[in-house]
Amino acid sequence: MLTNSSRVTVIGGNLLIRNVRRNDTGMYSCTVENFLRSQTSSAYLTVQVSPTIHEVLGPSRVQWKQNILFSCKLDGVPTPRVIWFKDMSKIPYTSRIYARGSELHIISSGNDDTGNYTCEASNVVGSTKMTRQLIVEVPPNEPLNLKIREITSTSLQILWHPGFNGYSPITSYKLEIRRNSTPVWSTVSERIKSENYTVDYLKPYTVYHLRVLAENKIGWSRPSERVWNRTGEDSPSSPTGLQCQTINSSTIFLTWNKPSLPNGKLRKYNIQYSNQSNHADVSTASMTRYIRGLQPFTWYTFRIQAATGGNPVLLWGNYSSYVSCRSGQAAPIDAPRNLMVQSSGPHSIWARWQKIPIGSENGIVIGYYLQYKTPWDVNYTRIFIAGNDTLQYNITGLFPWTNYTVQIAAITVALGPWTLLRASETDES
């Protein structure tokens, strides 16, 4: 039975409830009676209550691809309607993200699921909302701003900046490399702890592409954008296939092939050649060279080296193996020595001589030419005497008691200088 209080007043047949509360909900009955009889009438009072959200249950941090359940614990009369928001925007439900009652389900969470989730409850009395933050730990983003510097002939230093860490600290980086000539990437290191690395043991003057991946406890990022550069030049290997060919008595022709390892842009070749008494060097930019001004019929040895660089100095490689060629023959530069002539009868004269000095032959002396005439002859009569070791000759068929002048010259591929004239008179007949 209700009695008057600070909130409830009964006046005659009226009931006044002030500051109605939720627990005022219920069945109310009014009974009237007199000495004849009594009568009761009842009515049910429903107190409508604005929604109250007590808490939003669910994780605040999950790992990539985990399922998520948010549950909005609330009450209100009539039963509130629940709408879920993410970052202040109403969530468009899909087969992966959907609501069931006051619950929100997220299947196989990803990076886009990180954010602030709001449960909004409303009924005819009012509305309320509560927000819970969710962080989904995902693999990091790829590193940024890759740069290559400190280039040498065998190394490249690469630097980069970390990308988004996926809400989990980056634990290491992986550096991958490939040459310009191959599409296959190979791993240099996958346990790099800093944002820079020097790649060693590279080939000189070669284009390399590099890219970097980041790792956190969830996994690896995608590869970064690639950067590329060319290693510096270095000394080349030796030229190959050096060959020499005798052209004439003073010229030898050289040919060769490029080094198998150029290690840069080939700028110049240096040819070193020598005989027993001296040596010389000559440079060229081509792959052939005539070596001129040589001594006739002389052995020369040749070797060659190549150079790259030139900014600021040339980088010379090792010399090739030696090759040897002998220059061609030429006419002797001296005449036979000590020519002597003496009558050996009325119709003959003996001629005797010595070989030309050693070093003056300019080739292989194949014999001698001897020529003679009388004072009244216009032309000389010339005789070929075969063999370098034939050092005398008996001139026959001469006129008796006649004065003859005689001279002799040695011959290789050409005739050398003549001796001075020597005279002798045949005997009387």
UniProtKB/TrEMBL annotation:
<dbReference type="InterPro" id="IPR003599">
    <property type="entry name" value="Ig_sub"/>
</dbReference>
<keyword id="KW-1015">Disulfide bond</keyword>
<dbReference type="InterPro" id="IPR013783">
    <property type="entry name" value="Ig-like_fold"/>
</dbReference>
<dbReference type="InterPro" id="IPR003961">
    <property type="entry name" value="FN3_dom"/>
</dbReference>
<keyword id="KW-0393">Immunoglobulin domain</keyword>
<protein>
    <submittedName>
        <fullName>Down syndrome cell adhesion molecule-like isoform X1</fullName>
    </submittedName>
</protein>
<dbReference type="InterPro" id="IPR007110">
    <property type="entry name" value="Ig-like_dom"/>
</dbReference>
<dbReference type="Pfam" id="PF07679">
    <property type="entry name" value="I-set"/>
</dbReference>
<dbReference type="InterPro" id="IPR050964">
    <property type="entry name" value="Striated_Muscle_Regulatory"/>
</dbReference>
<dbReference type="InterPro" id="IPR003598">
    <property type="entry name" value="Ig_sub2"/>
</dbReference>
<dbReference type="InterPro" id="IPR036179">
    <property type="entry name" value="Ig-like_dom_sf"/>
</dbReference>
<dbReference type="Pfam" id="PF00041">
    <property type="entry name" value="fn3"/>
</dbReference>
<keyword id="KW-0677">Repeat</keyword>
<dbReference type="InterPro" id="IPR013098">
    <property type="entry name" value="Ig_I-set"/>
</dbReference>
<dbReference type="InterPro" id="IPR036116">
    <property type="entry name" value="FN3_sf"/>
</dbReference>
